[in-house]
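Go through this one:
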Amino acid sequence: MSEEDEIKKKMMEKKLFEMQSSALQEHAQMQQLQESVKKITAQILDHKARERLANLKTVKPDLAFQIEVYLSQLYQMGQLKSKITEQQLIMILKKINEQKDFRIKRAHK
């Protein structure tokens, strides 16, 4: 193996190690975020709302996480004065669903 090939190999190994390290850090940060969001939602949701959110997680885990993050942000900003009820959670879900249902209509010539 030539000296140039050896240098390239070492550089590739270093880059691979950096990418793996970065991926591990991102994974750890995501787990930490999920844990903190889980703790906050356990505090701010009443029993029925937690059940509904758990059901939503089985069907649409990404949407459930999005709602958990949203509620956690509201809590951290001090905008929640009492626990979220199931009916309030349903209203939040409807609002999010309405926001996603927008359509762009094109005029036909």
